[in-house]
Amino acid sequence: MTTTRSAPPAARSGEATARPAVRRGAAWWLPASVVVLVATVLVTVTIGPAELSVADVWRSVATHLGLGGALGLEPLGALPDGMVWELRLPRVLTAAAVGAGLALCGVVMQSLTRNPLADPYLLGLSSGASLGAVLVLVAGLTVLLPVAAFAGAVAALVAALALAGAIGTITPTRTVLAGLAVSQLAAAATSFVIFWAATGDSYREILSWLMGSVAGATWTSVAITGVAVLVLGTLLASTGSILDAFTFGDTAAAALGVPVARVRWLLLVGVALLTGALVSQSGSIGFVGLILPHAVRMLTGARHRLLLPLSALCGASFLVWADTLARTVFAPREVPVGIVTAAVGAPVFAFLLWRGRRIA
Amino acid sequence: MSADTRTPDDVAPATEARSAAGPGGLDAARVSWSTAGRLILDGVDVTAPAGAVSGLLGPNGSGKSTLLRVLAGVQPPSSGDAAPGHPASVVFAGADLLAAPRRRRARTLAFVEQEASTDLPVTVLDAVLLGRIPHRSLLAGDSADDRAAARRALDRVGMADYADRELTTLSGGERQRVHMARALAQEPALILLDEPTNHLDIAAQLDALRVLRDLADRGVTVLAALHDLQLAAQHCDHVVLLSGGRVVAAGDVRDVLVPEVLDPVYGVRTEVLTHPRTGRPVLTFAPRG
């Protein structure tokens, strides 16, 4: 059908042609961000008080992977080797897994609730995890911390979904409000426990945990966060078409043949389990899950099939660099990585907002 | 009132209703919906003939939107009190739409809701491509065929040149046509629209209605809730008038849009003139009393 109104006004045609230039590069975003992530891991492992070159890192890693003989590499000395293999590499890999998982969960939560302020902790997960963690910290049972944090997160999820379900069908608004109620209650309980029972040393431990940190990461942390991200994260990352269907809300999604209520339940539970697993290892690191999806969306548009994997890859690189800053800028002192993610991320996000304003 | 104008009092037998819709049309019966103990739809029977533009009319709160949502399958009907043991049925071209699997239903029926909006930075083409979701695996991305179908849909609504524009930069009328294109990309045989001309200037209203006429000419069954009786009089073939969750009258525009039917429903005084060129009814309204 041709109408005289179908041609775009001349004044606007300039921006109409300028805009797709960003999108045409879309095919390059994924491979580029994979390269960035790999480079990030290799470079950040070498950064720290005892200088190790990229070659040393490769030597250590190759040796541990059983490739040393085949490649004819000299094994690294015990001290630098331990520094790479037992301290820095697990820490870097855990940061990567946590960053990837949080960014992914953030995308899913923002789409499902159609709320730009949604983050992975929306259902009270971080408050629940904090309550569990603080309880064992003041009791001096630090060994149980991951278990308690995970249990707290799951308990908060169950409470939030039960509350949302008790009001009626699980709609975005009800989910957010129920999460808020659970979150506030758990936060009050956490504050009470700290106020009542925490003394000297446990204060510092609690504060560092509440701000989020991967300083204590071990290969167990890598296994837990890595498996969670690979299994649950891959499932979540494959829901691009379904999340796209929610672009214009629940009714539009239902009209496109999506079983809205079931999908929402499944994805919320998936996000909660993944977030719970991450929080149990790193504490609740803020900012990544909230802002990173927005930043990536501004660069590449809102299509979830690209947005989901790209957010995960960028989240991984971002958190690795943030953690590297956290352990080096004030060396030998460390700051919780949650402070760095906010301090670095907020100005970057403000810049993207400002830049996006001129384009749109 | 002519013979094919039905009132709640003389309930037409199901066979008669079916013949009114024709073999390919929409035929819904006994549709009820209640919320919090309030009956919004009370055993509504509605037909929409294939290849025609049907208008769903009625005052605010008469149940137009609710009826469309139930017909579209995005809201399940309640069991009606009127006929226990006779649940609602929504039949299109001989197939039961309420019982159909969601995805198959989405390949037959498209629903353009009122004021669908998003804050996300989606382009026009991406928005239209959403209509292809029922036609492909949920794990697959859009194929070249999907993009071709989306561009055809944009072409049909006269928005082909806007494909790469961001949706938020369009005017209300342009956005409405994009939503129609999204529905067309579903390649439906039945399209339901909730107030497709709302908040549009007159040129945009005519654009939207021209798209509906074009669809009907291609054999698609079109049912649109319309607020504006004047537009309905000029553009619809068949109209269904709702009031208080019941069908007051249904049939040809010339039979339904008459003072005896409209005045009690809207509480106004209607005069019907005849358009000198098209011969269609032109309505004027005055306050009652």
Main attributes?
heterodimer, A: about 350 residues, mainly alpha, ABC transporter involved in vitamin B12 uptake, BtuC, 17 helices, globular, B: about 290 residues, alpha/beta, Rossmann fold, 6-stranded mixed beta sheet, 4-stranded antiparallel beta sheet, 10 helices, disordered N terminus, nucleotide-binding (chain B)
Largest sheet descriptor of chain A: none
Instruction: Please give the share of residues in helix of chain A.
Output: over 70%
| The CATH fourth-level homologous superfamily of chain A | ABC transporter involved in vitamin B12 uptake, BtuC
Work out the oligomeric state of the chains in this entry.
heterodimer
Radius of gyration of chain A: 22 Å
Radius of gyration of chain B: 19 Å
Number of strands of chain B: 12
| SS summary, helix count of chain B | 10
- Average pLDDT of chain A, rounded to a whole number, is 82
Overall shape of chain B: globular
- Quickly give the structural class of chain B: alpha/beta
Instruction: Tell me the strand order in the biggest sheet of chain B.
Output: 6-7-8-3-9-10
Low-confidence stretches of chain B are: 1-22
Structural class of chain A: mainly alpha
**Strand and helix order of chain A:** HHHHHHHHHHHHHHHHH
Average pLDDT of chain B: 86
Q: How widely separated are the two ends of chain B?
A: 23 Å
GO molecular function, one term (chain B): ATP binding
Protein name (chain B): ATP-binding cassette domain-containing protein
Keywords (chain B): ATP-binding, Nucleotide-binding
Domain ABC transporter (chain B): 26-269
Can you walk me through this structure?
The complex is a heterodimer of chains A (360) and B (289). Chain A is mostly helical. Chain A is built from 17 helices and no strands. Chain A has helices at 10-18, 20-24, 26-44, 54-64, 68-71, 78-113, 125-138, 145-167, 172-197, 200-211, 219-237, 240-245, 250-255, 260-282, 288-300, 304-328, 337-359. In chain A, helix 7 (125-138) packs parallel to helix 9, helix 7 (125-138) runs parallel beside helix 14 (260-282) and helix 15 packs across helix 16 (304-328). The longest helix of chain A has 36 residues, at 78-113. The two termini of chain A are 29 Å apart. Chain B is α/β, with parallel strands linked by helices and 289 residues long. Chain B has a single domain (14-116, 188-287), classed as P-loop containing nucleotide triphosphate hydrolases (Rossmann fold, 3-Layer(aba) Sandwich), CATH 3.40.50. In chain B, the strands form 3 sheets. Chain B has a 6-stranded mixed beta sheet with strand order 6-7-8-3-9-10, sandwiched between helices. At the A-B interface, helix 1, helix 12 and helix 13 of A face helix 3, strand 6 and helix 7 of B. Chain B: Residues 26-269 form the ABC transporter domain. Chain B: One of its GO terms (molecular function) is ATP binding.
